[in-house]
# Entry
Amino acid sequence: VNPSCPAQLKRTVAYFAGRDAMDIANFGQTYVDSLVDLGYIRNVSDIYKLKDHRDALIEQGIMGKEKNTDKILEAIEKSKENEAYKLLTGLAIRNVGKISAKSLLMHYNSIWELADATVEELQQLPDVGEITACSICDYLKKEESKLLLKELDACGVNMIVKEQKKASEKLTGLT
# Structure
């Protein structure tokens, strides 16, 4: 039940770094387990603070030698530029997967805007029912979730939806 439980934390961090979420290359379960066990990661925002421990990570050989550690740290830095829906997916909110995260952020300009939405507003969106809307609001209204989002924002993780191209209207009205 406790989200700070080491086993849950390891699964959450691995999911966050996984292909469907932030897609951090070569940052697998083995590294996650070691980094959580050694106290380098206490929540997902700590992934973006690993660069501050580069020398210690190399010295302890947690992520391999210098070249491999630098490669993983570079992949972590690159993931900051991902689209906002990947971050929303990585937060592992119940009933919000990759497709629903994309759909949600088509209606909001940032994760901050989504966090301000009410259950009623969310239910007006296509494919968002009461259970999903409640899950989103419950997660985003928690104080620890707000703190996590602030930490991720401070680390430079993208939370804003990039402007979406509108479809051409050349064929409008034609059959």
